[in-house]
Amino acid sequence: MKVIYQQRQSQCRTQLIEQKLDALLVLGFENLRYLSGFSGHAAYGIITQDHNFLITDYRYAEQAMNECSDFEVITRDREKESLGSCIKRHLKHVTRLGFDAAFINVSMWQAICEALDNVETQAITGLIERQRMVKDHWEIKQTKLAAAISDQALNELMPYFVEGATERDLALELEYRMQKLGSEGLAFDTIMLFAQRSSLPHGIPGEQKLKNGDFITLDFGAVINGYRSDMTRSYILAEASSKQREIYNTVVQAQQAAIEILKPGLPAVEAYKAAREVLNASKYGKWAGDGLGHGVGLFLHEAPIIGPNCDYVLEPGNIITIEPGIYIPDFGGVRLEDDILITQDDYQVLTHAPKPFII
Length: 359
Description:
By secondary structure, the protein is α+β, with helices and mostly antiparallel strands.
């Protein structure tokens, strides 16, 4: 891993040179973990052309020293030294400083700037995130492990889909099984919705009870070493109407149309167009979700965001989701989502839980 972190840091420094910056203040938790290996909180990173610093406090000092790769750990006494003063102490010979603008509020940045009186600052967005779009072999392995846990947990949950089960109970059971299988937490708050509530793309599980003929939509993920999986399945319990079948088959066809053209060099918007063409040709296009998918890794929704305005061209090492959906208010919805690795030649599906419509 040491070599991997050194490569990431070197790539970051190259980008700093290209942007004529002397240093970068790393404020995003996922960005700092990506560059240093530190998995805790309340920490800030400084990348210069010849040194790396991680500033934290006594709560995380030991953890940082154990986890960080090629970072000098600075333990700040929060009662005696402001964050801005501490940052300034470690910016020797720095005149132009970029900062992770998406991960700091105005009041905090103003306080830091008061100490950086002789340093020109520049807001930076997406610099490290662009690096993170292409996963290395270790990152791919973690995502595959997280996806395998999700697959197994859902397989174990299937017998629990019976009349009378509540959304909340099944969500909790699924979460328990993921963590029992080794997930270090939840990739995000589990979505488990029945019947007409399945039209809520990001609804919160409640006390709705499952009945025969109900739609079921569940969206969930596991986490391994910070790397997340993200999978959605939609089912119906026992019996389905012709309209429900039509909706489900439309989403299946839209997802497959997008997945089957994935390969390096493909503009991601073409996958969006392929799925959208299927959705718009159906009766249900006006109820289709606007986006198609997103990158996934240390953060749930990473770049690229795949939609009508996406200008990214797929590269080997991208891990993206493909997740078309149809959401009809007061009736129900269907979404199918899989994690896809872009390989040197085409693609590999990482999530393998089956997709039977009727269970």
